[in-house]
Amino acid sequence: MKISCKKVNFSCDSELFELCESLANAAFPSNEMLFPTTFSEYKSEHELLAFYQSDLRDDIMGCCASDVDIGDEFIGFCALVLRSSFVYLAFFALCEDKRNKGYGARILKYLQKKYQKPVVLEAEKPYIGANDLALRVRRAGFYTRAGFIRTGYSIAYFDEIYDIYCTEFDDEILADYKAMYEDFARQKSANFELKKDN
């Protein structure tokens, strides 16, 4: 199972851009599609990577990226924000028929290798009474098995609470993460609450 990667050029790759956006809209509830609201709001510090399955291409673990061909099968994408001290995984989605097959873990390891920085992400906090508690617990287990640690901090926005996970975590990353959300809050006229868990 080889995976290849293509960085999406927002001005040239409109068909691929729409494919990623369509998968995002199917994979995430509308209240989560907020950072950014649409991929078209991305700036220079953002990257959108599309992933493909192809035995004819170099594998992502052996190189930074490889060209893709029309015959390669699209399997998913990740949307990233490149910060000074970490890479923020804003969105990560695989096509439904590609889930639970090892692709996700390999892509997360690839991101760590490619950027050589800690990777930070959020996952809905599992709490008793959540209507999708089993899914939240599975996600937490998946990220833990992929080498992420729960930082002990959570963030709340738009009526949801998320645990913050990271491959490495320190005060510099926490300050940079908070600054990222302050920028986000200004751009979106939104509020967030970052807190240390008890």
UniProtKB/TrEMBL annotation:
Residues 8-176 form the N-acetyltransferase domain. Coiled coil: none annotated. It comes from the Bacteria. InterPro entries: Acyl_CoA_acyltransferase, GNAT_dom. Pfam families: Acetyltransf_1. This is GNAT family N-acetyltransferase.
